[in-house]
Amino acid sequence: MTRKIYDGPSAALEGLLFDGMTIMSGGFGLSGNPESLIPQIRDSGVKNLTVISNNAGADGFGLWMLLQTRQIKKMIASYVGENKLFEQQYLAGELELELNPQGTLAERIRAGGAGIPAFYTRTGVGTVVAEGKPVEEFEGQLYVRETWLRADLAIVKAWKADTAGNLVYRKTARNFNPNMATAGKVTVAEVEEIVPVGSLDPEAIHTPGIYVDRIIKSTINDKKIEKLTERKREAA
After folding, report:
1. 9-117+148-217: CATH, from 1.10.1410.40, 3.40.1080.10, 3.40.430.10, 3.40.190.290
2. Which of 34, 59, 168, 176 is the most buried (most CB within 10 A)?
3. Of 125, 83, 84, 82, which is closest to residue 101 (Cα–Cα)?
4. Bridge partners of 162?
5. Is 27 helix (H, G, I), strand (E, B) or coil?
6. pLDDT tens, 38-58?
7. What is the pTM of this model?
8. Domain range annotation of the chain
9. What gap in Å lies between CA 24 and CA 3, rounded to an integer?
10. What is the pLDDT of residues 186-214, one digit of tens each?
11. How far does the signal peptide extend, from start to end residue (predicted)?
12. What three-state secondary structure class fits 232?
């Protein structure tokens, strides 16, 4: 078996990065982001990136770092709100945006991993989402054709991995990560814990190791809270 465990982000990304490449980055809000790998991409200086992700990070966190350094040329995303830097760059014409309904984005990524070049969905019919795309009727309903998404590199964050690359995600940190792990030509996973083969319950594995090429133990595991909501304390 090819060795999949690498010493750190720099070693895991060596030889994979180039200008103009497409990168899929897991995460939803502040949960499940490959927060150890993104700073290494920033430090590499690679530019003109197309990045596929649910959102573009938050102030000072995640993909925001690549926006700050102007390394992202185009974002393919479903949610870009509450990111002032993203807003500034987009309105200034410095950043290209391909906005997707969230379910459509997830299915485009899943289709890329499954080898399905296109599919039809009712989501977006009659809106700007459908502009320039084929629309067909099925059983009396209109559907818009969407195409797959694939990437040169997928970076994902998991909770545990075994040395064969099988991954387990924890709760909502799973989000886009399993789909993206299947849709990259090369997939690099950062995980909180690495265990021997056979240590994971086969029924609990979310991403089979066949999809994972390189693994690192996370160097950053910040458990940030995007919106802190507190219940008022009841009177004594």
Report:
1. 3.40.1080.10
2. 34
3. 125
4. 195
5. coil
6. 999 999 999 999 999 999 988
7. 0.94
8. 9-117+148-217
9. 23
10. 999 999 999 999 999 999 999 999 999 99
11. none
12. coil
DSSP secondary structure letters along the chain = ----B-SSHHHHHTTT--TT-EEEE--BTTBS--TTHHHHHHHHT--SEEEE-SS--BTTBTTHHHHHTT-EEEEEES--TT-HHHHHHHHTT-SEEEE--HHHHHHHHHHHHHT--EEEESTTTTSGGGTTS-EEEETTEEEEEEE---EEEEEEEEEEEETT--EE--GGG-TTHHHHHHHEEEEEEEEEEEE-TT-S-GGG-SB-GGG--EEEE-S------SS---PPPPP-
Query: Tokens 């500034």 belong to which residue?
Result: 88
With tokens 């000072």, the residue in question is 60
